[in-house]
Specification:
It comes from Microbacterium hatanonis. The protein is of the alpha/beta class and about 425 residues long. It contains 18 helices and twelve strands. It starts with a helix and ends with a helix.
Length: about 425
């Protein structure tokens, strides 16, 4: 289980937006026209995250082993992307290794020619073993068969539940969406301050959490050809269920709730179930901020008509600046940082949820994680889907559109009509990009 001290540290890191520049040597990190064979320094740019925190220690070790100094520049996410756009628009070679958010910028950055093609790199070393990375994570960092990065953090949608409430009611942990609805309805007790479920109900934030419902019903935001598909019968059923759970068994004002508000309700013991990302586990295991430390359980997303299919996304991947003059050296550093040994070290010592299956299968590496969560991740290969939102550059606009039918479901409107209208708008957005 996470220690309280580590939980606090993770929370502080995730919440931080401040810029941190860590020079591991007195030297600057610019390329300076060095030839590949003469590389003595590399510069890494990344977002503030647990992975970046762990990277500081690993980078020092890398310098000791290779003599190559590594400078790390870390920023809050928004500032990071702004920084990238300014520098890459001018073809800057000031940095070599670049960590980025796959679903937010990879399409734009690859279209602009800013990301190096890493396909040959990842397939060239059998001992490093690209196949050891979870399939959904490998899929997430590719576009049209081209690999643009190595996944260094992963995140899944899971079910959190109150073990005490289920036991008192004689209920088993739900394994299907039908069983989930029954359990939520049974435990819904608003008169005594406990709601059946808490989830994101705000129009844009809810879209990512809707995704696993769509997948498990055999639907998706887009079909195999990339066309809008949120008005299919399967998608409408998934949307109706999501809306029904919040309408009938959720808290008041749910359409104004994102993950912060919904998770707070569960942490206060005011919801029997909470469905969201497994990265929030530390919130409920911190005794200073949670009243469910001893009663929180973790379960895999339940099976729908098409099985249990949930997002297994990559919040951060690490790639190479196309304009770097040290691409081979940058790859050697990435390969070393993401090898099996170091992925296990990050998992065990910094609780970084990496993408290597071998790391999660190592009992020592996962000893600090809740057993229920570990079991879900170990079983992710057959269930994970590598995206949790529409796949296009204008993803923010798409989420605004896609969230509409769910709001209609929560408010008791005509979901089918809302889905048809939203699908037309979404298709227009897709067409505008093409």
């Amino acid at each position: 289980m996470f220690t309280t001290q580590r939980s606090r540290r993770l929370l502080a890191v995730l919440a931080s937006g401040a810029v941190l520049a860590l020079g591991l040597t007195a030297c600057g990190g610019g390329s300076g026209g060095q030839a590949e064979g003469e590389v003595t320094e590399l510069t890494v740019v990344a977002a503030n995250s647990p992975w970046t925190e762990g990277l500081k220690t690993l980078a020092t070790q890398y310098e000791d082993e290779t003599g190559i100094a590594v400078t790390i520049e870390a920023y809050g996410n928004e500032q990071l992307n702004d920084n990238y756009k300014v520098k890459l628009n001018s073809s800057s070679s000031d940095f070599d290794v670049m960590a980025f958010q796959v679903q937010d910028v990879m399409r734009e950055f690859s279209r602009n020619g800013w990301l190096a093609d890493m396909t040959e790199y990842v397939s060239s070393d059998a001992e490093w073993d690209w196949e050891d990375f979870q399939p959904a994570a490998r899929d997430a960092v590719q576009l049209d068969g081209v690999v643009y990065g190595v996944p260094v953090m992963t995140e899944r949608q899971i079910v959190y539940y109150r073990t005490d409430l289920l036991e008192a009611a004689g209920l088993e942990v739900p394994t299907t969406l039908e069983e989930l609805e029954t359990a939520i309805a049974t435990l819904n007790d608003p008169d005594n301050g406990v709601f059946g479920i808490a989830m994101r109900g705000s129009r844009v934030p809810l879209v990512t959490q809707l995704s696993s419902f769509l997948y498990s019903y055999g639907a998706d935001f887009q079909d195999a050809d990339g066309n809008a598909s949120i008005d299919t019968p399967e998608a409408v059923e998934a949307i109706e269920l999501y809306g029904k759970l919040l309408k009938e068994y959720g808290p008041p004002g749910v359409t104004n709730m994102g993950w912060v508000e919904a998770s707070a309700l569960f942490a206060q013991g005011r919801a029997a179930f909470y469905i969201d990302a497994d990265s929030q586990a530390y919130t409920f295991l911190d005794e200073n901020n949670s009243s469910v430390v001893d009663t929180v359980g973790f379960a895999q997303f339940p099976e729908g008509p098409d099985g249990s299919k949930f997002y297994n996304i990559v919040p951060q991947t690490v790639g190479i600046n196309e304009f770097s003059q040290k691409k081979d050296a940058a790859w050697e550093f990435i390969k070393w940082v993401t090898n099996e040994e170091n992925t296990k070290w990050l998992l065990e010592n910094e609780t970084v949820p990496g993408a290597r299956q071998s790391a999660w299968d190592d009992d020592a590496a996962v000893a600090q994680f809740p057993a229920g969560l570990v079991e879900i991740v170990r079983n992710v290969a057959d269930h994970g889907v590598g995206h949790d939102r529409p796949q296009l550059e204008q993803v923010a606009a798409a989420r605004e559109i896609v969230g509409g039918p769910v709001i209609a479901a929560i408010e008791g409107g005509d979901v089918s009509e809302a889905a048809t209208s939203a699908n037309t708008q979404f298709q227009d957005l897709l067409d505008s990009e093409n």
